[in-house]
């Protein structure tokens, strides 16, 4: 795979991840009824929803800055993976398996995006 192909896949994945988690973060910060009802149903406290929204919007902002803050992008990817894993298991336990499809799709998109990130920016480049 060429670097150009990896960069293209990385930026498409970054755009999809940003759209997904940015929208979610904004919905959390603006107390969108659908998002809040689901999150509260999962047992998370209201204050946590605001913190999650700030983390998502901040993380997406970092991801969208080209060729900068590479180490911080690593942390953003870790945070996104934690968010997906917690959402998956929370929904699986509280709502049921059919509610986890979005988490599985998000996990797939973010995994491919992270793999392409590592191809575009090898570990030696990030230090």
From TrEMBL:
GO cellular component entries: membrane
Membrane topology recorded in Swiss-Prot or TrEMBL: Multi-pass membrane protein
Chain ranges passing through the membrane: 48-66, 75-93, 99-117
One Pfam family matching this protein: DoxX_2
Keyword set, alphabetical order: Membrane, Transmembrane, Transmembrane helix
Family matches, as InterPro entries: DoxX
Record's subcellular location: Membrane
Identification of the protein by name: DoxX family protein
Species the sequence originates in: Mucilaginibacter ginsenosidivorax
